C-alpha cells in the first residue's frame, strides 16, 4: 500500500536538495556563531537571505524551461493563502507595536499585580504572561515585558530566578500557541486551510489543561507571602486587548479584527496620553510592519520554494518516507498520521530554531500527510502549532530562551529544564494523539 498518486508527479529525493541547502546555511551559521560565543547565534544570518541560494538552486534544478521554473515559484509565492498570511502578519505587528507604545502592556502587568494574591507569585507570573501573549500574539514581546519583572521578584523574594523566568517563558509560549493573532496560529491555520476558531477549539482542550497543571506546579513552588507593590494603571489601556480577544471569537474576518484593534489602540492612546499623537501612532504602526516584515517575506519565499519542490516530487518523496515510517507503528492510521506530521514540525523547528518558520517549512508536507491519513485539518493545524511551540520553548538556542536568559543573566541550558508548561504541554499533546481527544466532526 502506498500513498495516493499526485497526478503525474514522481517522487524524487533530489528535489529536496534546495531545502537542505537552506537548512544547512541557516543551521550552519547558528552553530558557528554559537561556537564563537555570539549572542542570538541562530539569528545572525537572516532567514530570507538564507532562502535565496535555495530558491536559485531550485530554479536551476527544475526539469523544464527556466522561465517556467520562475513562473512556478511566483505562483507558489503569490498563493492567496500566503497573501492573506502576509497581511495578517503586518496588521498583527502593527497592533502589538501600537499597544506597546500607548502603555497597554505595562497597564496589564500592573493590573495583574493588583488583583492576584501575593502568595502566588509564580502562578501570577505565568498567568500574566499567558494573558499578555494571548492578547499580543507574540512570545518575544511578552518575555521582553515580563522577564524584567520576574527577575525583580526573584531578587526580593525567596523564589529562585530560574523558576520565575521559567514561568514567564512558559506563559509566553502558552499565548503564542493559543492566540488568535499569533504568527504561529496564522501560519498553522493558513497552511492547513482551516479557520482560526476551528483550530482554537481543538487547541484549547490540550493547552488549557496543560496550563492548569502548570499553575498547580507553580503554586506548590511559590511560598513567599510578601506584599508586592504595584503602580497605578489606566483600565482603558487594557481595552484593546480585551476587544481583540473577544472579536477574534466572532465571525468577523481576522483582518477586520486586527484593523479594529489598531484603530482602537490609537484612539485610546490619543485620548489618555497627551504625548501620544497621530505622528507617534503612524510611527508605531510602521514599526510593527517592519518588525513582521522578515517572517512575512520568508513565508512568501518558502511558499514559492515549496511549490517547486512539490512540482518536482520532493514533497511526495518525503511523504512516502513518513508513510513508510509510520506504517511500522501499530497505533492506527490517523494516530500514525498525526505522529508523522508532528515529527515533521519538530525536526523543522530543531533545525531552524523558529516556530513560525518551522510551521511554514512543514505546512505543505503536513497537509499532504493529513490528507493521506485522514487526519482532520483542524487537528493537524493544532498539533503543528503545539509541537512547534513546545520545541521553541525549550531549545537553548531559540530566541525566547536567549532573550529571557540575557535579562536574567543565566544560562539557557540551565533554564530549559524549568519551562514546565512546555514539557507538560508535550505530554498532553501525545495523550491527545493516543486517546484521540478532543473529538469533533471532521472538517469538510
From TrEMBL:
Its main location: membrane. GO terms for cellular component: plasma membrane. The chain crosses the membrane at residues 12-35, 41-62, 82-105, 125-149, 202-221, 233-249, 255-272, 284-308, 339-361, 382-403, 415-435. One of its GO terms (molecular function) is antiporter activity. Signal peptide: none annotated. Keywords: Antiport, Cell membrane, Membrane, Transmembrane, Transmembrane helix, Transport. It is found in: Cell membrane. Residues 86-220, 242-435 form the Na+/H+ antiporter NhaC-like C-terminal domain. InterPro entries: Na/H_Antiport_NhaC-like_C, NhaC_Na-H+_Antiporter. The keyword GTP-binding does not apply. It is a multi-pass membrane protein. Belongs to the NhaC Na(+)/H(+) (TC 2.A.35) antiporter family. This is Malate-2H(+)/Na(+)-lactate antiporter. It comes from Acinetobacter bouvetii.
